[in-house]
UniProtKB/TrEMBL annotation:
UniProtKB keywords: Methyltransferase, rRNA processing, S-adenosyl-L-methionine, Transferase
Limits of the Ribosomal RNA methyltransferase FtsJ domain: 20-230
Signal peptide per UniProt: none
Name this protein carries in UniProt: rRNA methyltransferase 2, mitochondrial
A UniProt-annotated Pfam family: FtsJ
Lineage, top ranks: Eukaryota, Viridiplantae, Streptophyta, Embryophyta, Tracheophyta
Keyword ATP-binding among record annotations: no
Similarity remark: Belongs to the class I-like SAM-binding methyltransferase superfamily. RNA methyltransferase RlmE family.
Organism: Carex littledalei
């Protein structure tokens, strides 16, 4: 069947069959299989966690309860932790990521030590205006990156387009990010001319930087995922 918006394609049916709350679960499943960003006992921050599919997949990869770990989902609206594939290590917080202080985000992590994995599946409400949607996507991506690695200076970005986003994505002066050394970062972006700058910025800061368009991505979507492994 067609992979158009709203059509009950293979991934939609599989999500229903396997108890996932959305087909997007399979995007993180593929990322996990190829890059293994979430290891047993990890502490995971899921930005833009609604409706909860990534919470489910993240929890599944924490290993048994005795291994510990935690998954904290943040979304601008209230999100109920899914009953399937989640256990007591998963919780959600209602907050606006764009104005979330790093100090508060860090305080949500186990012992306030920061997170070993940060996931961002945030996406703007698509207007259909390509340039507008791309700009909003970059703002969300820059905010996720800033939360992860700390305050980003315009000198670091080396990209005039990215510089414009920085002023809207630095709500606090906390220099340190909430991603722990050696940690992994996954960010969804909508493909546009500014997207390569994200990879360029991350390459010297992580051991490995990759791009992926998951198989579960709808054919009509321009989304692509930046996977950064091993924060230096």
């Amino acid at each position: 069947m067609s992979g158009g918006v709203g059509s009950p394609d293979f991934f939609y049916r599989e999500a229903l069959r396997l108890g996932y709350v959305a087909r997007s679960a399979f995007k993180l499943i593929q990322i996990q299989k190829q890059f293994n960003p979430i290891t047993p006992g990890a502490s995971v921050l899921d930005l833009g966690c609604a409706p909860g599919a990534w919470l489910q997949v993240a929890c599944q990869n924490l290993g048994p309860l005795e291994r510990g770990g935690a998954v904290v989902g943040i979304d601008i609206k209230e999100v109920k932790v899914p009953s399937s594939h989640c256990d007591s290590r998963v919780r959600t917080v209602c907050a606006d990521v764009m104005s979330l202080l790093k100090e508060r985000a860090r305080g949500l992590s186990p012992q306030g030590r920061g997170f070993s994995v940060i996931l961002s599946d945030m996406c703007p409400s698509v207007s259909g205006i390509t340039t507008k949607d791309a700009a909003l996507s970059c703002e969300l991506g820059m905010r996720a990156l800033s939360l992860a690695v700390g305050k980003i200076s315009t000198a670091d970005s080396g990209n005039s387009g990215i510089e414009q986003f920085l002023s809207a994505t630095e709500p606090d002066e906390d220099e340190a990010g909430v991603l722990r050394r050696g940690g992994n970062l996954v960010i969804k972006l909508l493909e546009n001319e500014d997207v390569p700058a994200f990879g360029k910025f991350c390459k010297p800061r992580f051991k490995k930087v990759s791009w992926l368009r998951p198989k579960a991505t709808r054919s009509s979507s321009r989304e692509i995922y930046l996977i950064c492994q091993g924060l230096k």
